[in-house]
Structures are given as C-alpha cells and as structure tokens.
Amino acid sequence: MEVVSGLLSGFALALEPVNLLWCLVGVLLGTLVGILPGLGPPATIAMLLPLTFNMNPAGAIIMLAGIYYGAKYGGSTTSILLNVPGESASVVTCIDGHQLARKGRAGPALGIAAIASFIAGTVGVLGLMLVAPPLAKLALAFSSPEYFALMAFGLSMVVLLAGRSMLKALLAALLGLWIATMGTDLFSATSRFTFGQLELLSGIDFIVVAIGVFALGEVLANMEAREEAHALPVPKGVRKLLPSLQDLKDSRFAFVNGSVVGFFVGVLPGAGSTIASFLSYGLEKAVSRRREQFGSGVIEGVAAPEGANNSETGGALVPLLTLGIPGSATTAILLAALVLWGFKPGPLFIPEHPAMFWGLVASMYIGNVMLLALNLPLVPVFAQVLRLPVYVLYPVIFGVSMVGVYTVSGSMFDLTLLLVFGLLGYLMRKLDYPAAPLILGLVLGAGMERALRQSLMMSEGSLAILASRPISAVLLGFAIVILLVPLFSRINAWRLRALEPR
Amino acid sequence: MASERRMASADLWSGLAFALLGGYIVATAWDWEYLGAEGPGPGFFPLWYGIAMLALSLALVVSSLRAPWNPPLVPFQWRAVGRALSVWLALALAVAACNLLGFVVSLALLTYFIVAVMYRRRARTAAAVALALGAGFYAVFPFVLGVALPTGIFGF
C-alpha cells in the first residue's frame, strides 16, 4: 500500500506541467548527448548542474535524471550508424548493431534498441521502486563504522572495475581523496593543502573537478583527431524503423535478460552500465541457438545490451538514494547535485523527502514513455545531429563548461582550476588512468574521513571497532578481498577480459 | 614494442609523479596532529592515504621497470598530443583574456582559433562560427538567463 500511495503522489508531482517540461528537456538533451560521441552524461550533467541552482529541486532532479537515462537511448544510434559508441554503455551495441546497419537493417536495429530500452528501463524503475524503500529502512541501523566500511567497499568495487590496471585505479581514487581533503578541516579548523591560497580554504568545488576531468578532458582527447566519422543513412518513416514480428520473437529472452542483469549490476557499486551491457550480451550469446552468428548482425545482440544499460539506471539509483553511496561517475555527480540543493541522500532521504523520491520514480516511468515515443519516429531527425561539425560543437562545450564553473562562485580562480583539471583529465586518458575512481574518491572522501574519525572517537582510538561490528567487518572483508584480486591470476584474467573491449 | 616501451615509460614517469605527491602528503600530514584527546586529528586520514599513495606509486614504478607492460589501448602519437595541448593552451589564453576582453570576445577568439587553425576551415567560415557563438552565448546567458559573465573593456 505504501508503494501505491507513494507512486500516486509521485505521479501527481511528475505530471505537473512544469515537471513534465523538465522531464522532456532532460530526455531530449540526454538523447542528443547520447548520440554525440565524446560527450557523456557525467560531463553534461556536471556542465548543466550550476544552471539548476535557481530551479525547483524536484524539476532539476527530474531533468538531470532524464539526461542520465536518455543518454542510454541515444548512445545506440551512434553505435549502429557510425560504429562509434555515443557513450561507453553502448560499446557492445556496435558489434551487432553496425553489422545490421551495413546489411540495410539500420531501422529495425534502432527500433529494437528503443523497444528494449523502454522495456528494461521500465523494469529497472520498477526494481528501484520496490527495492529502495526496504533497503533504506535496513540502512537506518547503520552508524559511522558501517558507513566507512560501505564507502570503502564502494570505492574498492569502482577500483576493481574501472580500468585495466588496479594500481592506476587506486592511485586515481587516492588523488580524489587528496582533493577532497583540501581546505579547512571541520573538526579542528586546520587548513590543509591550501598552498597559501585563500580561495582554497573552502576546498575545491566538486563541479570544477567534474567539468574539468570529464568535459574538458574528453573534448581535448577528441580534438587529437582532425577527421570526422561518417554515419550510415537512417531509413525514413516509422514503418521502416519497426522491427518485424520475427525480430521481436528473437529478442524475447534478450528483453528479460537485459532487464534483470542490468538492474542487479546497477545495484552493485562500481559495476556500471558498460559491465551490465557486456554481461547481458555474453549471457545472450551463451544461451542462443545461433551463437555462431553473433557479431555478424543478430537483432538480440542489440536488444540485450541496450536493455541492460537502461535497466542499470534504476539499479544505480538504489545505493545512491538509500545509502548515499554513488556507484559511478554519473551517480556521483547526481549525489553532489542533491547535496547542493540541500538534500542528504541516505537512509533518511525517502522518509524525509518522499515527494522527491516518488516524484523521481514516477518521472522515470513517464520519461521512458517519452523516449519511446520520441525515439521511434524521430531517430532520423536525431541522427542529423551527427552532421553537426565538431568545430562548432567543441567550442560550445568549452563555453558551457566555463559558464558552468564561473556561475558557481563568480571566481576567475575557479576558471584557472578548471584548466588544471581539464589538463589532468586529458593526461589521465592518455596515461590510461580511469577517471571514475578519482570522482568517486572526491565525492566519498569527506564522508569517509568523517565516518572514520567518528568511529575512532566512538572507540577511543581503537580500529578494532571496524572489525567488531558484523556489517562493517563483512563489508571491509569484501573490500580487502576485492583489492587483493590482482594476486589471484585467474580472477584477474577474468576481470581484464571483461574490461578488454573498453 | 615501441608503443609498449612508451606506455611503460609513461607509467614510470606518472608513478614517479604520484610518488612525489605521496611523499609531499605524508611530509605535510606529519606536522598535523595525528591523535588527540578528542580522537583522530587533521593529520590522521591524509597520513594514511599518503602512505598508500607512496606505496602504490612505487609499486607502479617497479612494475614498469621490471615487467613487459600490457599494450596501451591507444599508442602515443605525439602529433595528436600536440594538437590537444595547443587547444588547451588556447583555452588557457582565453581564460586569461576574460578579464581584459570579457567572456564573449574571448570565447569568440577561441572559436576562431579552433575552426581556422585546428580544423583548417576558411577564415570566413571561422569568423562566422565565432561571431555566431559569441552572440549566441551572450543572448542565452547574460541576456535571457541573467547569468553574470566576466566583462571586459567592451562592456560585455
């Protein structure tokens, strides 16, 4: 009953005209961002975040979430037409999607991607709605040691799955922790790592780092090449975009597989939509009667990963909203957004702000319907975005990034920091250091330090408190095992195989 | 092989950079209170992650010196890196010019550089894109949204 009444109140909020408008803006922007290679949801959300400060928080979170899941829809278009993933979650869609397009079946490939995304995206929201409230109640029993252990576990999962070298992923996470501790220590008022700069006393704004590392770093990396890719044509007319009955029949299992795998991988901190789509594709191939044809253009090879990366969104919001633990770069930025608007994601978020939670859930149902309605008839229109010259797009991204950072503080110092973090983001890409652990380290750093220091205050300085409480002991145990993975060559080989296509 | 050596070398230098940073963090945190009467002090957390950074970066340095490194996802191409760094430098100049020329003019000049120099389009195309973008940003942000942007000698 609680779920039904919550959902009804959520729909009442999400169906308000202004919120419907923000939902539409979010999913449209998300689709465009997904289509454009080199501009992902974390960069877009980070760039637009400062512009939402004057918005109603409900409308703002509805719009930013719309960008998050809308990008998953859009990503398939570029994968299928260009053989270039619009965003990382659509990498695996290139395999069969582009082959289908080369065979003249771009329409059904785009159509099945939209249908699978809709079905699995809706299942993911259903999972979020059913799992989040009871998990939040369970998490009410958590205290500082459990929170520290949970954050350490989340960070270790991100490190495990973030890149080919765990050493580099760990170093990136530690760099994030260092940036997080810059500024005045709230316990003792000591200024730490400020290099004598007054501007650093209040720490470095998360938005500056996120926009620098993701938006500027991505654009600088993309600007290395002068050439632009050319897309295959999209058939005009909805009828030519609709998959055949045989296509739908072939994709039956893929819809279920994508929905279930995507949601559960999403709940797991650190795994993310790329892993979800690869796992779902692998499972689909493993159980298929025509597995030898995978890679040559089979329709379920598009449906499974596209479903999984959309269902993952609902799963990823579970730890974010119930525990305050983001599992990916995008959810880390959403966490920062909620904090900036004055909310504290965690066990008390749903009981204290039911309208925000249920409004978000309801908006995601509505957003998925909007995306299906938009994507089937308008794919040829969206595909025109791929004709936008990069020499126009990149200066726009630079301009929006600068405006985004300047809006936060009105400080030229922050614009200088933006340059520093832009260069850092670019160098990290070149040197194969993953950016997600840095962002997670930055977002979780202050909370981790606070939880650890509070735990040690509770125990009068004894670290045994972390091992003597069952939940924190189990979570820290898992974190330690995860960090020891490179020592187990077979498991590490599996990890590297899973990450190889990225 | 050459690209593998380059990545190993990149790991070596980035590992050394992290080792320096780790050493700096440890040395700085050493001077702050570690444990006080009310619990851990400001030096507690940085000291531990600084030590971890130092240890891990040295492990990266040693591994890059000893083992054949995994092939990089994308081999280093210095010409491409030069392009990216040129754009970064132009962006830095645009940021520096904001106080003098204002945001709109700085962005327009940056756009002109990107279109004309980096993508080798005709000067007329570059000027049109730069003007359109500058005017578009001015129309959307200060004019419609009321967002304050750095202004310069031209008053916008």
Brief account:
Chain A has 502 residues and is mainly α.
Describe this structure as you would to a colleague:
The complex is a heterodimer of chains A (502) and B (156). With 502 residues, chain A is mainly α. The radius of gyration of chain A is 22 Å and the shape is globular. In chain A, a hairpin with a 6-residue loop joins strand 1 (183-184) and strand 2 (191-192). Chain A is built from 23 helices and 2 strands. Chain A has one domain (2-85, 96-229, 245-499). Chain A has helices spanning 2-14, 17-35, 41-48, 57-82, 93-102, 106-139, 144-162, 166-180, 206-222, 238-241, 245-250, 252-267, 272-287, 300-323, 329-340, 349-352, 354-383, 390-409, 412-430, 436-458, 464-468, 470-483, 489-499, and strands at residues 183-184, 191-192. By secondary structure, chain B is mainly alpha-helical. Chain B has 2 domains: 2-66; 79-145, no CATH class. Helix content of chain B is 74%, strand content 3%. Chain B has 5 helices and 2 strands. Chain B has a two-stranded antiparallel sheet. In chain B, strand 1 (35-36) and strand 2 form a beta hairpin. The mean pLDDT of chain B is 88.
Choose one word for the global shape of chain B.
flat
Number of strand elements of chain A: 2
- For the biggest β-sheet of chain B, the strand order reads 1-2
* Poorly predicted runs of chain B: none
Alpha carbon gyration radius of chain B: 24 Å
Q: Kindly state the mean pLDDT of chain B as a whole number?
A: 88
